[in-house]
Design goal:
The protein is mainly β. It has a single domain, classed as Allene oxide cyclase-like (AOC barrel-like). It contains 1 helix and 9 strands; from the N terminus they run H-E-E-E-E-E-E-E-E-E. 9% of the residues lie in helices and 48% in strands. Bound molecules: 2-acetamido-2-deoxy-beta-D-glucopyranose (NAG) (2 copies). Its main location: secreted. Keywords: Apoplast, Secreted, Signal. InterPro entries: Allene_oxi_cyc_Dirigent, Dirigent.
Length: 188
């Protein structure tokens, strides 16, 4: 396990340093010396936007795809698929900056807490086409929640970071939630 982690770690740096492995070579792994002059400089990007989840109505952005086989405490076992708009401001008609596309699942038998496995797909400005991946636990009743950013693509290649969430609107009856996100990521 440790050697696998080591290998992945060195591969990670090798790809940063050299772009890719030489084509058609039989070399499985290659290490390059890292000097200060070639060390990639990491940048910190901070993003702020609002997430809109709508489970009901004519045009839901999230739908239940798995129902637990028997009645469970706090919906444990329920799985949803979402394609939720991300906007600049809290209003649903505010400028669209991206979408949150992925799965969330009721993963706790003790309190409403969901597992989120999702990609933030950005469409705005220089971020258009880039993604950030979230894999985290969202304890929904807490006023502030934190979930890790575990990776990214495009401008956010090699990203890692953190997202802080605050519920702005929650109307359980209408199936609507608007959540404020502050995302901080380090990337090359
Ligand atoms: C983002 O990129 C896509 C595909 O290249 C393009 O069709 C779209 O107009 C771009 N959106 C913005 C807001 O620049
Ligand atoms: C996001 O950051 C702004 C500015 O620091 C702050 O006012 C706001 O409360 C933060 N929101 C969240 C969800 O952390």
């Amino acid at each position: 396990m440790a050697s696998l982690v080591c290998l992945l770690f060195s591969l990670h740096f090798m790809v940063i340093m050299s772009g890719s492995l030489p084509a058609n070579s039989e070399v499985f792994a290659k290490e390059s010396p890292m000097s200060l002059s070639t060390k990639p400089v990491e940048r910190l990007t901070q993003l702020h936007f609002y997430f809109h989840n709508n489970k009901m109505g004519e045009h839901p952005t999230a739908m239940k795809i798995v129902e637990p086989p028997k009645v469970s405490i706090s919906g444990f076992g329920t799985i949803y698929m979402m394609d939720d708009p991300l906007t600049e401001g809290p209003s649903p008609t505010s400028k669209l900056v991206g979408r949150c596309q992925g799965i969330y699942a009721e993963a706790s038998q003790h309190e409403p807490a969901i597992l989120m496995v999702t990609n933030l797909f950005f469409t705005e400005g220089i971020y258009n086409g880039s993604t950030l991946s979230i894999l985290g636990r969202n304890p929904m009743l807490q006023s502030v929640k934190e979930m890790p950013i575990v990776g990214g693509s495009g401008i956010f290649k090699y990203a890692r970071g953190s997202s802080v969430l605050k519920t702005h609107v929650h109307d359980a009856k209408a199936g609507v939630a608007i959540v404020e996100y502050n995302v901080s990521v380090l990337h090359v």
